[in-house]
Amino acid sequence: MDSINMTAEVDLGVLVEEVVEAVTAGHAFAKLQHGSILSTTSREHGSTGTGRQIMSVNSLSGSESNAQESSEGSVSVLLDIEPKRSWLVRTQAGALRRIIMNLLGNSLKYTGSG
């Protein structure tokens, strides 16, 4: 039985750039939402037995004050892809994307400033 060939020729520069843009945009959005819908507590809104939270309409409309202002410094992400004749590589693009997403995601998650 032949195995499915999961490898393909991909431009590594483009792949890394796409993943970095997506992860940093997601991190910026999550940081922007921190303190509103994403950081609600079960004490404020009640909790169901299944771990779900019941949110008030005020929290969804933004009329509650944001108790946790971000006092942390910002994190800068610099991506410098050296000009080269070809960044084409034969690899499993999905697996490589997941590795880069995990590395960058954890770096952004656990870095306060820099």
Automatic annotation (TrEMBL):
Stored InterPro entries: HATPase_C_sf
SUPFAM superfamilies, per database record: ATPase domain of HSP90 chaperone/DNA topoisomerase II/histidine kinase (SSF55874)
Listed Gene3D superfamilies: Histidine kinase-like ATPase, C-terminal domain
Residue ranges of the region described as Disordered: 39-75
Biased composition, class Polar residues, residue ranges: 50-74
Coiled-coil ranges per UniProt: none
Protein's name in the database: Histidine kinase/HSP90-like ATPase domain-containing protein
Organism: Friedmanniomyces endolithicus
Lineage summary: Eukaryota, Fungi, Dikarya, Ascomycota, Pezizomycotina
